[in-house]
Structure prediction request, 394 residues.
Amino acid sequence: MPAVHGKDSINVSVKLIIALLVSISILFIINVIFFYMLSNDIEASILYTSTVLFDSIGVNGEDYFLKSLSTSSPLFAYLFIIFIIDGLAKIIFIGFLFAAFIDIISSLNIRDRIFSVFLKKTKNHIIICGYSKLANNLIKELEKKDDDFVVIDKDLEKVDILRNEGYKVIYGDFSRKDVLMKAAIERAKAIIFASKNDMANLFGIVTAKHLNKKIYIIARATEPSYITKFERAGANKCIIPEEGIAIDMYKYITNVIK
Amino acid sequence: MNKKEKKVIICGYGLVGERLSEMLSKHNYNITIIDIDPKALQKAKDMGYNVILGDATHATVLEKAGIKNADALAIALDDDAKNLFVVITARDLNKKIYITARATDEFVKDKLLDAGANYVAMPQKVASEEILNALG
Prediction:
């Protein structure tokens, strides 16, 4: 994730610089237009006057420059400085302040914090590790049964989709202790490892068993050789969806052709 | 009275195909396996099944496996599109055959049924039922 964040920051900076350059150019053009309108009162060339005014802003030399202009010109120059440059500075300043504020809020992860406070009250829930097609099917079934459940996934896109649908989701690797703790594993009644990744499931089983000895562990395996490994690690039930399919097809065939 | 041996063709000798043929063979079904992978097919041959090497989406391969006089066809390839292809081809070749296929989601299930499958099995549905039973 840090790599993506870094790339985003670079993109933002480049956009900011471009925006600043465009704003300055627009101001310079406005400046030139106004001086052009007042050109009868000044002797120097319009472009030169504009450049000197821009250059003298914020520097003591501006007073000297302004004095050299005729009576009507300094008024415009003062207004220009006060209203436009000052305004622009304020907008930039407020913009930066606002961006920093948003950055602080997003780094605080308020959504996650509120969620973890909410989870503190959760007990006897089911934890679903890995948002696979199997997990999706399970979620729909558990919802019908009014069972309380939490989903863990390390794919931010999937996490966002589920959160927007109103599910309780934790972003992270389910084989990690801190992530399982966030899901209040010590008070959960069951945990289901629904991922297609056998190794991740195995790690998850070991971690879950370590954190809660009483939890009921169900794990999905992609091949029969993993079942003994899962059981040895502490799984109470192992499932191979493909075997279920074979049984389902067998039942159908033996039923229709006897 | 001698019961006529029923003929079942299984497309794909992966985990599903292997388990299914294992269960069916115990009940005296005549099993023919179609697979594109010679290694998988050798395994099936060693088990004593009839084997056909080739792509089950091709009509010629299905014909070679004897689809015209088979009683049932189980399609257990792990690709929804291929399964759909086999269903369409098989239904064209034999109007009476019982076709069962696997699908990864509801959307595909409907397509397979529309294409001519009689029964569609979905791994995640079967597995979640099993999980829910275990949870009680």
